Amino acid sequence: MPELQPGDDFAGHRITGVAGRGGMGVVYRAVQLDLDRAVALKLIAPDLAGDPAFRERFVRESRLAAAIDHPNVIPIYYTGEHGGALYIAMRYVEGSDLRTLVRAAGRLDAARAAHIASQVASALDAAHERGIVHRDVKPANVLLGAGEHAYLTDFGLTKRIASHSGSTRTGGWVGTLGFVAPEQIRGERVDARADVYALGCVLFYVLAGTAPYQRDSDEATLWAHLNDDPPSLTAHVEGTPPALEPVVRRALAKDPDDRFPSAGDLGRAALAAVGRSTPARPERLVATGAAAPAGAEAETAPSPDQALTLPADPLPPRRGARRPAWVWALAAVPVLALAAIAAVLLSGSGGGDGTTGARTTAAPTTGAPDGAVAGTVGRTVQIGGRPNGVVAGGGLVWVLRSRSDRVTALRAPGGRRAGFRPLVGRLPAAMASGFGRLWVGKQSRPALVAIGLKSHRRIGAPIALPAQGKVVGVAAGERGVWVGIRGDPGLIVRVSPSRRRIMAQVTMPDGVQDIAVGAGAVWVLGRRSNTVTRVDVATGEKRPINVGAEPAGVAVGENAVWVTNSGDDTVTRVDTGSLVTRVIGVGDGPYRVAVGGGAVWVANRNDSTLTRIDSETNRALASPVEVGSNPFAIAVNGRRVWVTSPPDGTVQRVDF
Question: Which of 34, 125, 136, 265 is catalytic?
Fold first, then answer.
């Protein structure tokens, strides 16, 4: 694979530099063009990418890593393939890794080391709760952002230990020499306590400036891991708090049963040893499923660091798919405890921040009728250029591409390309159909462009928009065309279709993630809050409503507002009259949502599926539709759904 240079384009990303290199490939700093978002883009080494078994493992384990929602875990946005190369896009963190820091500045003081270790421990607890063992915890995989906020990254070597997929070769082990547990070296079953051992090695490394079993040869290092007693920390480092010695020794115990039962327990013990007060908690196992010690799965409990959520209507997984982690967590909670949780959810207590949260109701716990089919893929159209928007209007399906300054039109229902491609300008980001026109918001020199749905030509000059941020959403209706602009603060503006000028502006302190219109209001997703805000069109009154974690998309229809919550794999339904909410479980990483034909459709980016929700029963059908990679934009036209796949460069038609 040739080296990418700053300014090169790759799969919808512009390369800005090299962030790092490792055994699996190169990590580039890049900009995701369709969202104008900084990302870390990891390209997998060609010798690995060419191995079919590795490619299968890469997809499977990337999805596992993407399922971990925790502030100390680097979020994975999506994966893809371009020109035969595998890549993965993650949040870009401005900063350094722990190995680089220690090499440059020397060993860290005890309080600083314990603080970083406790953050990594919290991230590991979150992974272990989901049955995931990291298997390669080391200083180079700990990134440090602003204020030394620690992020655990590179779950590329994770594995669900109970699987029989053969991800590791017979007789081999996966890990890094200086930080590998004895049972890993021996090729035995590995559980969460192997990560506890590795974290103990990391803690020793940052305190002493060297790995605990560093020897002159690889063979001697492996022998030391297997046979030597844990080294004395106080003998290596003068002035180390004596209370840290037993913490490190216990973490490095040869027998997993002698170690801390959870990484969180190790982190809290390290903080206590340096005089940092921590809540008094009994030690307990938090790992579930395959990450739990053999025979201990029934004794596991939710981590005290993680809030227990209770989605009301889980989507039954398709055959072979993983169950969401909370399904297994709830299985361990006594029935009376579940009743107490439900009572809290329904008790009418708000969020304490002025948002509406008191009127949440639980959805039915049963799914759609057995045998119900969500839909079938009827047509796949190769578009190219990372399609990032789709709208139905005027008998056509209009498609935006992040790297094209023109709009592509497909003739519905067949999907054949039309002979015209109206010019809209650089970086088109969002669009809507209404008032006899297609309205396209572009990010380069922010403006709103109108295209006639009959003439298929641009109407008038572009309407200039405030330049204080990026266009992220366009919605037509409720007295005009509304544009959502990302900024600090965010902004929504109303444009008159007839006068072709801005008629109103409303600031949104929490930022703008997406917008929709209907029922006399504009519905705005907060970029920095888990809310959807109802902005009354007549009065301008704002009313925030609590939704799930990391809201990503919003749509209005069927007497409700539908919000996808990418952080907890749910959809929140908000009744447009009463504002009562209910939660519906969907697929992995729900992003955009669309309403039509008596159904609500959700594009799940992480498992590449569409979930169909029946708008009458508010239940998700049991069988999602498998579509192209990382589905992004979605539109409904009659009994057909159109969905884009940016990595594949396709638009697919799903019939239902």
Answer: 136
